[in-house]
Amino acid sequence: MAGQVVAFPHRDCPRPEAAEGLELLLAGPEGARPATLLFLHGASAGAWVWAEHAMPAFARAGWRSAALSFRGHGRSAGRAMLHALGLLDYAADVRTALAALDGPVVLVAHSLGALVAQMLLGDPRVAAIVMLAPVPAEGLAAVNVRLPLTDPFLWKEVARMPWLAGGLAPPERLRHALFSARLPDERALAVMARMQPESLRALAEAQWPRPVASARLVGTPALVLGAAKDPLVPEDTVLRTAWFHGADRAMLDHIGHAMMLDAGWEQPVALALAWLEGLCLGR
């Protein structure tokens, strides 16, 4: 797939039309901050997960941002070859997006997207990294061995995700893994209806350790945020990721795995904003 980025600018909440290439949503004022935020989505999602809350909130705080849909996701090209795509393909998409953005970039990444973001550590264009419920570089095999024993019904629902067509039917356990009880059911189900299949190859690759640089060793500031009751990326897994990267960290209560779309999304946004202010990027 050619490394073409199709950008869709919008002042507040991006709503693009379908196009060729990679979908890149843009929001926020130009030149207000010394760095641009690049949002990376997790499995079965797209750039749209950032458009409702996160991008407008960061724009109001003066940050310009972009949200990428990996190939085969959202409105990016490549859906027909989805299950042949791997993590290196997603990392190549991030490099294409980095090349399209001016100046230093802060990666803000969720779940599987956070694993891809870790693969970019050491790239001189990456000024900092924020990881939400990150899939660890050690892989998810240990978590996925544990899950059928601790919650077999959730495990069955997660196992169906690569085969989604037209979103999720309302599986009760997955709804409560992705979102807290505070999010109304109708809102949770509306989000789940937008979800899509995920690449079998990418999911398989995410089970096993990957060679990534430690953010601490390459000098990249890092923040890790986890959901304390998340069964998909549990607290001990999140804390090991934070330790490996020498990252600042926080575990959040009363919020689910998909924290940027959950009730209480303001909490991770506020923590990330405060942390970014403390970095004094470009000053």
UniProtKB/TrEMBL annotation:
Keywords: Hydrolase. Residues 37-262 form the AB hydrolase-1 domain. One of its GO terms (biological process) is phosphatidic acid biosynthetic process. Pfam families: Abhydrolase_6 (PF12697). GO terms for molecular function: carboxylic ester hydrolase activity; lysophosphatidic acid acyltransferase activity. PANTHER family: ALPHA_BETA-HYDROLASES SUPERFAMILY PROTEIN, RE40534P-RELATED. This is Alpha/beta hydrolase.
